[in-house]
Each structure stands twice: as structure tokens, then as C-alpha cells.
Structures
1.
Amino acid sequence: MEVQAQEIANRLRAAERVGVYCHIDADGITGGAIASEALSRAGISHDVSFLKKLDEASLQVIRREAPPVAWFVDFGAGQLHHMREMDAVITDHHVPTSREIPRENRRDLVRFAEASDRVLMVNPHMDGEGSDVVSGAGLAYAVARAMDPKNRDLAAVAIVGAVADVQDQEFRRLRGFNRTILQDGIEAGVVRASIDLRLFGRETRPVHKMLQYSQDPWIPRLSGNGEACIAFLLEIGVDLKVEETWRTWSELEAGEKRRIVSELATHMLGRGCGWREVERLVGEVYTLPREPVGSPTRDAKEFGTLINACGRYEAAEVGYRVCRGDRGEALEEAFRLLAGHREHLVSSLQWIEEIGLTQLDAVQYFHAEDKVRDTVVGIAAGIALQASGNRQMPILAFAYAPDGVKVSARAPRELVARGLDLAAIMREASKRFGGEGGGHHAAAGATIPRGTEEEFAHAVDALVKGQLSHAAAPPSGPP
Ligand code: C5P
Ligand code: ZN
């Protein structure tokens, strides 16, 4: 990857002007900020824009804009086949187009990406790695570092991108090329890694709220119950307030933290949780020590959520400016967007509770129509799945989107361990209805035409049943 990053850096250095196009999520926004900072420092003129998705139509627009070099951040790999004759560089960790092509024809496309001197790509899949060893922001960082080793300070924003893309989730720590980035950040004094409670809100949430909103792991009796969380903490003798202000996790003494974690573990084990769940309480967490204590920009996960909130409400620019260092107006605006996001999420969850979940044989679903934004329905689905307490069924969620119906799918970890792959199912089912989809094993999505939702749900139901029965069957020889 470093070799490819160097080639891309060389191409950019020679460019008269660069058009930077970024995905409108936290990974794309942080990646765009890194790209732009590196180009600015190198004195290369450029423009930055954010796109909800990169498809044939948006590529047509970009062709008309005709930047001397186009730089795609956190997307592009899946659209290689639409980029012939374009001058482009791609920093993306998604599965390249070539994966969709039969194996015997694949080599040509990869070679096209690698050898065509007009499109250069750095992508972990080209090294046989998966999507979660590095993010789009991390790859933009690799290019920035190749442009100038002084750009190592940008590692902090790259770690925010990786964490926002939940690349630390499965193994409770970053891995692969992300660890190289982390090491750079530590050496540059802009990131710190430590083993700590993994729950969201270390810098900004009162401790009891942090427990109350815990989802991964779900803590029996405490998750979703603020009063029980206060009682739990008081019982083990933790002072919740200093004078009139609630204490946050980052303000606790090391001894208090240890006591809470150990009591949480005991609590979970005593209520039927297995070790696998309990150990998810703790993992590697990432701090940006140059940011002020108590600011969401100090914790990589909170920073990522703040930036995601901007992208979800069509204010990518605001998040971008925060990533570029604006701690004034843009940060204030980002706070407002995050607060608005939380309100929208609360009302969305209330609505879902009112309409309830429809149960099929192997999946459950709800249709949020226009009550939940298409950019938020995935989060709502994840929370609704947890709250349903159903560990045997994935959840599907529908919401109206400008280009049809947005589908989000989420699966309990147990089912993924049994072989469920929602990305494959979303891809397959959406194709049948003229839509498109993909994603990850446990979290995937699709866009389908309006009016096909019910049939789509039944198709997914059948595919889930098929995968799970298949998974239970004994292996039948080599593939
Ligand atoms: O939007 P949501 O959070 O549900 O998306 C989950 C995953 O599904 C994301 O990784 C996204 O890239 C993928 N997805 C996709 N095609 C879509 C929608 C989502 O591949 N049309
Ligand atoms: Zn990404």
C-alpha cells in the first residue's frame, strides 16, 4: 500500500489542480480534510466536494468539471469500470469492482487499476486484505505522508475516520495498516491509545448516561435505564457529581474506573451474560491529547460521531472545517447538528415503538416511511434490534429516500458467527428488484424502488433462512 500511496503522491505533486471528491460520511469527511491539508501544504491548488454516493451520473458531472486530476476519497473502488480515460487517484477501502467480475476475468480489471497510468488506486483489497484494516481517511493519510513525512500530525484525523467507520469494533482495537497510522500519531504526539471502558461518551457524558446508552455490550437492567444506572453507581460508592456538575468518565480516578469496570463485569456475569459479551466492555480507546479535556474532539469515537452528524444532515462542510482545525464557529455548528441528530433519533425510536416490528420467519422489519431520515435509519435499526432483545433474527428497516427506498439491515453478532452475511443478501435481494446494495456481514444496506418493500422483505427472509440452514449443514468438500 505504501508503494501505491507513493505513486499517487507523485501524480498529485505534478498536478496543476486537483478535484477532491469525498464520501459524505465521517470517514470521507476526515479523509477529505487530510487530502486538502496535504495539498495545501504542498501548494497544490484544489477544490473539495462531498457526494452522497459516487455513481455513473455523478461521474458524468465530474468528467464535465474535468479537473486535471480527480482524487476520490472513501469511494471509487466500486466504480472503476466507469472511470476509463479519466485522470484519477483513488484512496478507498471498499471492495473494488473487480470482485464482482468472474475470477477468470478479474485480473484484467485489477491490472487496469494498477497499471493504467490514468487511474491509480490504493486499496487494501489489492493486497488481499479486508475493508477494516484501514479507512478511506487512513489511505488519504498514507498519501499525505508519502507527499511529505511532516504530515504525520494528520494521523489523528485518520484515526478518527477509522474509528467512525467502526474499524476497531470487531476486535476491540484497530489492526492492520491502522496500527501503522496509530504509531505515527503516537510518535507525533497527536494520538494516545489506552485500554479502557469502550462505551461511548468518555469525554462528554455523565458516567450514568454513558452506562444508560451502552449498546455494545448491552448491559442487562442498566442499558436503557438511567435510574438503575445512578443506583448502580451510588451502590458501589462512586460520587456522581462534583458540586453541581455531573462527572464524566474522563474525570474519574483510575481506581474508580477499575471498580466500575469490575462491578459491571460481575453484574453482567450474574445476569447470564457470557464472557464474550462481558469482555466487550473493555478495549483500546483513542485520545487526541492536544484537544481540550471535556471536548468531544478529544475522544476519537465522539469526534467521529460529531462529524457523522454533520454528514447526515447535509452539512459535510461544517464537519470538514472542524477536521481542518476550526474550533470556533464550525465546532459550534457541529454541536448544534449533533443535538438535532439526537432529537431526531429519539423521535424516530418513539415512532418505531409505536408502529412495532413485523415478524417474518427469519427476519423482522419496520417501515419508517418519511419519519426517519434515510441517513439515520441504519442507526435506528441497530438500536431497535438491541431493544427488541431478539438475538435470533436480523432486522430490516425501510425509509423513503430521494432515489427510492433506503434499506438498512443489522444482525446480532451471534448470527454472523453462524455464517450470516447481510452484505451478500442485500446485494442479491436488491439486484432482483433493480436496486443495489452491499456493506458488511453484520451491517448492510441497499436502495430499492418504491413499492417493492414487502416483496423485498420476503426475499431477504428466504435468503437469511437459506444462509443459516446452509451454515448449520456439515461442510461439503472444498469450494
Ligand atoms: O446506511 P447503513 O448504515 O445501513 O449502511 C450500512 C452499510 O451498507 C454501509 O457500509 C454501506 O456502505 C452499505 N450500503 C451499501 N449500499 C447501499 C446502502 C448501504 O453498500 N445502497
Ligand atoms: Zn469508509
Note: The two ends are 29 Å apart (CA to CA).
2.
Amino acid sequence: MRSYSLLASAKINLYLEIIGARPDGYHDLAMVLQSIDLVDQIDLCQLETNTIYLHCSHPEVPQDESNLAYKAAALMAEKFPDAFTKYGGVDITIHKRIPVGAGLAGGSTNAAAVLVGLNLMWELGLDQKQLQYLGSLLGSDVPFCIVGGTMLATGRGEYLTPLPPIDNFYVVLAKYRSLSVSTAWAYQTYRHQYLRSNVSNTSATGHPNLQAYSGKIVSAIARQNQMQIYQLLHNDLERVVLPIYPQVQQLREEFQSLGCPGIMSGSGPTVFALTKSPTQAQQVVEALSAAIPDPDLDMWVSQGTNSSIRVLSFEN
Ligand code: C5P
């Protein structure tokens, strides 16, 4: 029986700007996305029956058809019925390390790993573009999670332009275990409060005038000006999440007072800050835990990475 073990990276948003509301209920965005080496392990095992099973020991991860990784396998079975019949079903096990409901694309990267893994297991020979298209049917962040690295993302998040990798940097992430924010809620609240339901037509091309939006941080990345990158970190969704979640606001302020400005990733509630060295990152973790001695607060030190989905091992 064939089996594949894959590593799937989380992402952070170095920049997230909401450009307009779309008629389909989504929003046109200009984002800079970055993969980090905080990873889940996804094991795929071929089954003799035409069934999809999913296991995950994390209590907050659904183990049924609502899990995005399950949906990814079901999509592959639907699109490639001959391969599904030939190779059989799949047993998916998710070993969760990426925090859940955190704004770090944990669910999206699991789905991306299933697409990449089944492409290999079923010998489909799909290229990156084809996998990204399938990913876009599952969620806005999935196309990025297929390819990873440092990317400018526009449209719903599915139009990707590679940016130069940012030299050595470390990430301190902080999240209250008991907090999670609904992405749909965050975008809809933003729409009602700031866009007054005006529907833009930027989606006609999917390529709004990017220079007007993310241009400054994109240039800072092109010049490898880390100081400027740190200063240009931005997330529009903070405008709706911070007033409702004071703990997230407090985290942000603590990072700021340590001289290491932090911002929220995605729709939160994870707040992250960038540092130049692992030592500095560790010092920030220690200072933050001293400032907020709350057992509900989890912290991680991670590093930027240029890859997203990696095959760890396989048996054919
Ligand atoms: O695409 P995905 O299912 O990951 O998005 C989750 C939710 O986030 C959507 O239901 C939508 O409410 C919101 N969203 C949005 N505009 C985007 C991406 C996501 O409004 N570009």
C-alpha cells in the first residue's frame, strides 16, 4: 500500500489590505504572505476501499466531511474518478502543531498537503498551476499554501506574484489558547463598518493597481530593507478585531513596549513580531511571558521559509 508523509507550513500576513467588497460576498485584497517553519504533519495511506477517512487528535479539529483536508480528498476523487477507482481511497492523519483558528492558515495548508500528496500517490502529474486552481475551489489561502515562500496575493488571495525571499528573519508568535476569531465574521464586520456594502468592480481583472496599495512593503522586500519591512507591517482586519478582543490589543501593546512591534496575522487572534536573530526572538518570548504571566497564552519562535509542502517520506 502506498503512503506519503508531508510537512505543511503555516503562513503569516506581513501585509493585508482590503481593497473592496465583491459581489460574491468576498473581498478584493492586497496581501503579502510568508510561509513559516511551524508545520503540521499529514500522513496519507492508500486504502483498498473507495473511502476517505480522517483522523486528528486535536479536540478542535473536525474529523468529518467539514474538515478542509477531507474536502480536498473528496475534490480529488470527484475530479479524477478513474484514479480514485484505480488507487482506492485514502486514510488521512493530521498531526497538529499549527494552532487552530489562529489566522495562520492551518486548515488551508492541510488541504494543500492533501492535494499535493494525492497528486503524487495517484500519479496524476498535475503541475503547480493546476494544483493551485484546485486549491482555489477549496479556500482563498489554499493556492498560496501549495507554493509557499514570500508572495504578493491579490484578488480573493488566489492571484500570486512571487517576491524575493526575505533574508534570515525569525518570528515570535503569541496566541491565547482559548481565543479564536471567525474569518467570515471579521470580513463581514469590516464590510459593514468600513465599506458600507459598496461593491467594487476591481474583481473584473483580479489585478487592482497594486502600486497604490502594497507598493511600499513590496519595494522594501525587493531592497531587503528589513527595518522598513518591520515598519510597514499592516493588517486592515485589526480595525474590527482589536476593539472586540482586548486581549489581542494588549498583546500588540506588549510587543510594542518591548520595541518589537507586532501585528495580527490574517483574521487573528495570533499576534506576531519579526526579529533578526533567534536570541532576540527568545528574549522577546521571555519578556512577554514575564509581562503577561497567563497560562492561557501560548508562544512560539519560528523562522521564515521558502517552501510550503514538503514530502517527508513515502512508500510506493
Ligand atoms: O476562502 P475562505 O473559505 O478561506 O474564506 C473564509 C471566509 O473569509 C469567507 O467565507 C469570507 O467570508 C471571508 N473572505 C473574504 N474575502 C477574501 C477571503 C476570505 O471575505 N478575500
Note: The first strand starts at residue 3 and ends at 21.
